[in-house]
Amino acid sequence: MSSFRKSGASSSEDDAEQLRRGPWTLEEDTLLINYIASHGEGRWNLLAKRAGLRRTGKSCRLRWLNYLKPDVKRGNLTPQEQFLILELHSKWGNRWSRIAQHLPGRTDNEIKNYWRTRVEKQARHLKIDSNSAAFQNLIRCNWMPRLLQKMEESSSVSSMTSENLTVPPLLDQISQHEALTTVQQAPRHGPRNLNEAVQSLHQLEQNSDSEHSAASSCVSSSESMKNISKISQFAEYQTNPYRIIGNNDYNTLSKDCYYFDNNSSCYNMEAINLASTSALGDFASPVGDCHMAENNWVDDGFADGLWSMGELWELKSFH
DNA sequence: AAGATCGTCAACCGCCATTAA
DNA sequence: ATTAATGGCGGTTGACGATCT
């Protein structure tokens, strides 16, 4: 639209060419599609002229790559895709294009928008810096496990066991080697019942005094987040231990628990452990300061259903 | 009902790297 | 070797529909 942005085309050349801006019309889309269908992509400035589009080459390229290209996927991101974005962003940061390469059909723009509108929104609501270790851990220990759970539920639930979980195809594309090299180190045990879990938590809290510098130690804070996650699952753990183990310790999961088996395409959920050994306290404070209880991640549409932070606090209070 | 605010997403901008002339 | 054109990327903006007050 010409009113999309106040016209920067003040040069006589631009005036003469009357370059259009803003949303594309159906007619323009048709012109672009037809031209590319018969001549292919590339040489975008030339393409724009030859196709009869009063657009910059850049604009044409963007429209094609982000919208018109046949393999561009539309619609909501699947849990698998969300999981992958979170995982890859933790590795690479704002390398949207690189991340997009691992999500077929998704564009860097879409991923960037997702991050800004969904992920950073949560950080804002929680008054946490989205780049902080605390928020990273929140993602790893609450959001990602939840996505895993959704992935698990949406895949063939009936055939799933505690030992075998079909690897989401997208996950299969990343870090298999890394996963295989680290998974063996994952401890294989966790609390077997509620009492054991609560005892473990007790122990953690007693140790918490020495681990208050969450910002100074990523490991420390992530360990504490593990425990928050752990707390939130104790009740459920009673009835479905495998699921809880499998979805609730992402810090371990991400580094150690892509238990890929090249033959079976499976990863072993048992490799995901609950046996973390650190403090609860160090993340508790920022959470409290941020009125987490009112920021229900589920109600907020956070990843279509994450932990209720109120629930987390309820469980902590229970202890 | 109407105005204000929020959330989403398509599109633009500027910068940098690469390629072609 | 130089320079202009092009492509690619990440950051940002603004339109618009949805929701809230």
TrEMBL record:
Q: Which Pfam families match?
A: Myb_DNA-binding
| Region spans: Disordered | 1-20
GO cellular component terms listed in the entry, alphabetical order = nucleus
Please verify whether the record's keywords include Transcription: yes
Q: What SUPFAM superfamilies would the database entry show?
A: Homeodomain-like (SSF46689)
Q: Which InterPro entries match?
A: EOBI/EOBII-like_plant (IPR044676), Homeodomain-like_sf (IPR009057), Myb_dom (IPR017930), SANT/Myb (IPR001005)
**HTH myb-type domain sequence ranges:** 16-72, 73-123
GO terms assigned for molecular function? DNA-binding transcription factor activity; sequence-specific DNA binding
**Domain Myb-like: start-end pairs:** 16-68, 69-119
The record's keywords, sorted A to Z, are: DNA-binding, Nucleus, Repeat, Transcription, Transcription regulation
Ranges annotated as biased composition (Polar residues): 1-11
Question: Where, subcellularly, is it found?
Answer: Nucleus
The UniProt entry, under SMART domains, shows: SANT (SM00717)
Protein name per Swiss-Prot or TrEMBL: Transcription factor MYB62-like
Q: Which organism is it from?
A: Durio zibethinus
Kindly list the organism's lineage. Answer: Eukaryota, Viridiplantae, Streptophyta, Embryophyta, Tracheophyta
